[in-house]
Design brief:
The chain has about 350 residues and is an alpha+beta fold. It is built from twelve helices and 15 strands. Helix content is about 35%, strand content about 20%.
Length: about 350
């Protein structure tokens, strides 16, 4: 199998697998970054090299078919293609720039230079879906950060669960995370030091690794949502249960920590966990339907049921049918939790408090 990124001098990029165009993009938007990122992830997942080819179209009206055919020429007719840093031109090692003075010695190539200059590390990690990790020799002579997505792409659910159970470090799975990136410059130097140290007569040393738990969970939520949901359920005391009865054997449901159970059977643990996350509102990043407490003073308004407060979910009941103007509805929906809207017509006789 051949995996190629074809780049033109004007910034267009195409990902090609076995001479078939998979995705292409332009430098003016994020489509070129998407093509690069997809190629890198396929390379990691399939464990095959990603060949980067600089192509020069013969005319202004070129087509990708022409450049793909050019890239498919026998290797003897092509100059050797080796990935280089987009910033300084240094050859890459394990996908990272070897020039310690280059910003890409700390960040993967898919991160745009403008983002390196204008964004914080946390913002870059969030935007590009990276997983930071740290490794060091036992004597701390060598310490360095690296990125761990390669291991997560290929890891089974059970291995990721085992890593989470050990709090993302100091276990066999964490050691394997380091080995998955051992050819990057920083880790290559660390392993070289460990091998040299252990070749002498002194005490043998090893290494330890810790993965950033927040980065890893964010990545799992984006890339492997079902597994992420299982981990969140476990963290919140929700059990995913496989049915044992013959008529429903092989299906799953869930039970929370206070004994509430699901009334639906699911074909996989992922589906059951996702249902629990949704019904129990365990996803802190999920859209929240606002909840309001509306108050009408009983001395100023007649209410048939004798109540002068009610809870209202979402914007549906705030509309012109119930005498709320467009401005009223806009102001109510803009309330922060704990803030109170006061009617411009009735003042404190009619207020709305946002409670969620």
């Amino acid at each position: 199998m051949s995996l190629q990124l074809i780049k033109t001098p004007t910034g267009e990029i195409a990902l090609v697998v076995n001479r078939v165009l998979i995705i292409d993009g332009e430098s003016e938007d994020d489509s070129a970054k998407l093509a690069e990122q997809t190629g890198e992830r396929l390379s990691a997942a399939l464990e095959i090299p990603l060949q980067v080819i600089q192509a020069s179209p013969a005319s202004a009206e070129w087509k990708w078919d022409e450049l793909i055919a050019q890239a498919a020429m026998p290797v003897t007719h092509l100059p050797p293609a080796q990935a280089v840093c987009v910033k300084c031109g240094t050859y890459l090692k394990g996908g990272m720039c070897e020039d310690k003075g280059c910003p890409y010695s700390d960040w993967p190539q898919q991160v745009a230079v403008i983002d390196l200059e204008s964004m914080t590390p946390d913002e870059i990690v969030s935007k590009y879906g990276l997983i930071r990790a740290e490794a060091h020799s036992d004597d701390h002579v060598f310490e360095g950060e690296f990125f761990a997505e390669r291991w997560f792409i290929g890891a089974t659910d059970d291995r990721i669960k085992a890593l989470v159970a050990e709090e993302f470090g100091r276990c066999q799975e964490a050691d394997d995370v380091v080995r998955s990136a051992q050819h990057t410059p920083k880790l290559d130097r660390m392993f070289g030091y460990i091998h040299a140290r252990n070749g002498g007569n002194g005490e043998l040393i090893g290494f330890e690794c810790t993965i950033n738990a927040s980065d890893a969970m964010t990545w799992l939520r984006r890339q492997r949502y079902g597994l992420w949901a299982q981990l969140v359920c476990e963290e919140n005391g929700v059990r995913i249960v496989e049915a044992q009865e013959p008529e429903v054997e092989g299906t799953f449901d869930w039970t929370d920590c206070i004994g509430n159970t699901c009334d639906t059977r699911f074909m996989s643990a992922d589906e059951a966990a996702m249902d629990a996350v949704k019904r129990l509102a365990l996803d802190p990043h999920a859209p929240v339907t606002p909840l309001f407490s509306a108050f009408w003073d009983a001395g100023a308004f007649y209410t048939a049921n004798g109540k002068d407060t009610r809870q209202i979910g979402g914007p549906a009941l705030f509309g012109e049918t119930l005498s709320y103007s467009v401005d009223d509805t806009g102001e109510i929906m803009a309330l922060a939790v704990g803030e109170v809207w006061e009617s411009p017509d009735f003042g404190p006789y009619h207020t709305v408090l946002r409670i969620r």
